[in-house]
Amino acid sequence: MALTLTERNAMSFGKPFPPPSSLPEGWRQGFAWDTHGAVAASAWPDAKALVAHGAALGVLQAVMTGLQQWLAGEPAVPVDLRSLHDADRALVTQVLGDGEVVVQCVPDPASADDVSMQAQETAFAGVWRVRHVQHSQCVLDTIELGDFPQAMAQSACDGAHPMSPQPTVWPAGTANAPAVLQELHERAQRWAQALAAGGPRPAHHVTNLTLQPLSPTDRRVLDEHLGQGSIQVLSRGHGNCRVSPTKTAHVWRVTYFNARDMVILDTFEVGGVPEVACAARQDLQDSAHRLSDLLQWVELA
Questions:
Q1: pLDDT tens-digit profile of 171-194?
Q2: What is the pLDDT of residues 26-57, one digit of tens each?
Q3: Domain ranges within the chain, ordered by starting residue
Q4: Can you give 68-121 as a three-state secondary structure string?
């Protein structure tokens, strides 16, 4: 189960997250994600302004419907914003604000698909602004409802493969990497078997690399053997944290940083999308309550 917003805040270091240099320049374009400031809270405009912008109000009502659908266990239909006029879109952006998690998906250079995806959690946890960008132009602008954007989760799975067999000869200086890979391989197999059987999913398994006596060669072997997936998640809900899938199915890298961008905890996690990147059900319930209050307030205007 994902941690709640209160639990995430309790674990926060209260410092902004400096984005890793591996992310492409300009990847935050179109998002109000300030890496040197606080998370921007939702700001309610004058109620009459929302009444006067019926299209923006209609989007918020559709978001409310989507939250109710997701909480009821039904598929939540994304809300398409492309037909909105600039004033209506700006009003929706103002009301929803910015949250704790931002996601970037960059297409594989070898792929013919040159569309990248960007997702920002809003100040309403579980409400995600998702944009598809091609040649620096937004070609799709939607709001998704749920614990994590589904298009991003699918992208993390696309191109992933079972772990490659371990070599019989390791590079000089290799010490503990083979044992770590064997552990991850066994756990990933259990997860894949549970998914194939359609039964209960096993609990996520975490391998703490910070406590492992790993040599530089060990770390290089792990990176080369597991690979790097197509998405990166930056989260401030558990402190300054970067989450990314590996090329190995069901294996994720979760790394925590201090304010100086130095690693303080480095882990591999086997399972679905790591909880640090997801909104908890309780948070979506809270978002539904707050959005319901806003819509009722507008009705009384």
A1: 999 999 999 999 999 999 999 999
A2: 433 433 334 333 445 566 777 788 888 899 99
A3: 5-299
A4: HHHHCCCCCCCEECCCCCHHHHHHHHHHHCCCCEEEEECCCCCCCCCCEEEEEE
